[in-house]
Amino acid sequence: MEYINLGNVARARQDFPVARRNYLEAVDHLEAVGERWGVAVALKRLGSLCFELGEISQSWEYYRRALRLSTQIQRKPEVLENLVEMAELLGLEGSFERSVELLTLCINQSELAQTVRLSAERQLESLKLEMLPNAFASAYARGPQRKIDEVVEEILIEGSIE
Q1: How many CA atoms, within 13 angstroms, populate the side-chain half-sphere of residue 39?
Q2: 105 close to 150: Cβ distance less than 8 angstroms
Q3: pLDDT tens-digit readout, 42-101
Q4: What are the structural domain ranges in the chain?
Q5: What is the CATH number of domain 2-158?
Q6: b or e along 50-69 (b: 16 or more beta carbons within 10 Å of the residue's beta carbon)?
Q7: DSSP code at position 132
């Protein structure tokens, strides 16, 4: 986890190449010692960093890898956090309805961390302004009807964001 912390410090200083290098070192080191939860955290941080740098495809891939690990080790709060971040990427790519579905699915889960819930709610407010009211309402209603396991499986199977 030391490399993750070093990555966080570098990122706070906006030294993005060093942050990326530290997060990647964390992944390598934690995979070598079998610390899957730590690997998932490092991958999530890489996804967030790539998002900040506008590297949407790479961000999606890191979040997808983190989602797979979080699912395997049954860490539902992390699964939900990854899904909320992925919903934001979908919105940026113009998949508004899919993003709304994913966000409303997550918001309806008691395990969703409060800070992540607030982020999801802000995203929904933004998407509401981008969409026709009927399309938003339909996607908003569909989300809670979905099952997390099925949605995760779809994301893991489909691969890239495109």
Answers
A1: 20
A2: no
A3: 999 999 999 999 999 999 999 999 999 999 999 999 999 999 999 999 999 999 999 999
A4: 2-158
A5: 1.25.40.10
A6: bbeeebbebbbbbbbbbbbb
A7: -
